[in-house]
Amino acid sequence: MTTIASSASIPSRSIAWRIDDGLTDYQTALDMMQARVAGIRAGTESEQVWLVEHPPLYTAGTSAKPEELTDPTRFPTYNAGRGGQWTYHGPGQRTAYVMLDLNRRHGRVPPQDVRCYVNGLEGWLIRALERFNVRGERREGRVGIWVADPATGGESKIGAIGVRVTRWVTWHGVALNVEPNLSHFGGIVPCGLSQYGVTSLAALGIPATLHDADIALRAAWDEVFGDDLAPGCTAA
Questions:
Q1: Which residues are 84's β-sheet partners?
Q2: How many CB atoms lie within 10 A of CB 209?
């Protein structure tokens, strides 16, 4: 486990950054998030951004349809309890669990504004991708971050977002495809969108590592969630 010092731009309450080495069991991650969220609500734990890598698995959000798990015996499946539909997690993908108290402002995100919080997560991934000269974009009606995909001539998803908010404390978060095995997404209809593909930094010809992604995510964080920013949802 690696711990990154919290940003000096957040003087009132620190946000702990944690990176776990190796593969993190998904049920263990759920249990640890639940415990952390309870501690944040009770005021005994600090807010946290937790970066992990999971073994291959599929997770079902609250809107997941059984028929969109097209290969139910391929990998273990879990009910995640977050919003959204089916998602894959696995090696080469950086999953970031974000546990924040939305009773207070976080940079551009005003208190108790879930829509703006999700917008902020999108902006965070977009700004992290800029570090690799990749243009990530939002799409109306499609959750996640999308990029032009030379392999298909269209666009594909490179980052997934799924959140849960319990008494105004957030958990779950985002997943960025760095260099996962993209064939593993074939056992589900990712986020219910069968007409679009999934890509990664590696598939786009960018030889990034998870460590490179961690650096980009940490650098981009304060551009969206830093306390020196004026509140209000950002378009980027």
A1: none
A2: 14
Amino acid sitting at position 144: G
Distance from C-alpha of 144 to C-alpha of 14, rounded to nearest angstrom: 27
Helix (H) or strand (E) holding 86: strand 86-89
In this structure, the number of other CB atoms found within 10 A of the CB of residue 85 comes to 21
Structural domain boundaries in the chain: 2-225
Of the candidates 41, 15, 167, the one whose C-alpha atom is nearest the C-alpha of residue 106 is 15
Look up residue 122 and give its two tokens.
């999108």
Largest Cα–Cα separation, the chain: 50
Percent of the chain with pLDDT over 70: 91
Catalytic residue numbers read 191
- Distance from C-alpha of 228 to C-alpha of 180, rounded to nearest angstrom: 35
Q: In this predicted structure, what is the pLDDT of residue 5?
A: 35
Quote the DSSP letter at residue 157. E
pLDDT in tens, 11-43: 335 899 999 999 999 999 999 999 999 999 999
Domain spanning 2-225 has what CATH number?
A: 3.30.930.10
